[in-house]
Amino acid sequence: MDALSNLLLGFSVALAPINLFWCFIGVVLGTVVGVLPGLGPAATIAMLLPLTLKLDSTTAIIALAGIFYGARYGGSTTSILLNMPGESSSVATCLDGYQMARNGRAGAALGISAIASFIAGTVGVLGLMLISPPLARFALRFAPPEYFALMTLGLAMVVFLAGDSMVKALLALLVGLWIATIGTDLFTAESRFTFGQAKLLGGVDFIAATIGIFAVAEVLINLESRGGGEILKIPRGIRNLLPTLQDLKDCRFAFLNGSVIGFFIGALPGAGATVASFLSYGLEKAVSRHPEKFGTGVIEGVAAPEGANNADAGGALVPLLTLGIPGGNTTAILLGGLI
Amino acid sequence: MGRDNSNLIAAACLAAFGIYVVYGGSKLSYVSDVGPGPGFFPFWIGIGFLLFGAYQMVLSYSSARRHSGHVAPLWSGSGRALGVWLGLAVAIALFRWIGFALGFVLLTIFLIVVLDRRPVGLACAIGAVLALAFYLLFEIALGVSLPAGPWGF
Q1: Mutation test of the interface with chain A: which of B21, B86, B142, B145, choosing the one with the most A Cβ atoms within 10 A?
Q2: Could you tell me if B45 and B83 lie in one domain?
Q3: What is the complex's ipTM, to 2 decimals?
Q4: Maximal C-alpha separation, chain A
Q5: Which of A121, A152, A195, B95 is most buried, by CB atoms within 10 Å?
Q6: Is B45 a member of any domain?
Q7: Do B45 and A171 touch (CB under 8 A)?
């Protein structure tokens, strides 16, 4: 009964007009932040922390959480329309989202991204409400060997993303791993492959790397064909701006997949939404009846990772709210607001 | 009869890069007091580059011998793409000396006039408008500083 009364109290607070208004402001701002590559929710929340002093603390936390969730969804917009992930957690969305846009289904891709984000985000919040304490205790049992296994599993997803050439995929994986070694070794503080540059001591910024890989590569591909640049087909008719009922039906498992994987990966401190989105994408491709179509504009390839990165937000709040342990940089800054 | 050497060349470059990575990793300590040292992963990543690069070279060479069709590389297109990449690299290097605004205008002129062969006036106008848009968005709206030249922007 305590749980139920607390839940009703929570709803009464959350549904107050002033809190709904600031939640809306936070979500809009977060979506804009997610769209802009390089400006993440962590920096935005850090800049807006003084809100907790000016507004009622509950209202401020609701606004900051709105930014958190909005940014997770906002990253999909540029991923789908420009093949440029706005957030690291939206990289997997580029794989099929942009292809859907090239096939004239940008509206459906954006729509399914929003729907998947809503469903998975709701599942994440329900999970946060119902199973936080035991899940937090389980998440704390994860030690370095388990994290290593999880990261290896994430890297192993390259097997599903390889396409025609496994060798080229493995070479690309090695390039990524090498880029990750640039900087300062965590244990011995020795610098690796910095070429004497102080700016490389902190490693290569993830957003800079993804913009170079996706956005600049896309520009160069279009420039290769002089005068023959392909422009995204503009969908005609309202019907083509939204996913169809068949699309929603096709994405049933993707919604579930994204919700569950995103939430449980999010509950692990330090795992990150990027891992969750790729795992979700890989699983969706593995269980699909037509895995060879992934990468060509399959709607499930958008729904799964987008759902995962939103459910991850709910999962990330589990260790934060139950044990006071932030799982990542954004939740660490949210903790500052809570304190 | 010709053959597409692009895969072969790319694999050879990666294999050569693997040699460099192994060399770079070998200069660092292989093990440390707490486990693998800073040179451990670069060493084995370099070995991976070498092995997979060599394997890809063999695959590319053997598939090129099997296929009789000539696949002409799009050198003109590749030249444009490389030109853009070089222009971008030079512009980024110049930002700290001449500022973002002027550097971006010059980059736009290079892309539109040199690579796309369109009028200079059009390039200058587009460059100026975009530089102003970036300034308004980042400097004014978001408060993010862009590289400034000796003239303050």
Answers
A1: B142
A2: no
A3: 0.73
A4: 69
A5: A121
A6: yes
A7: no
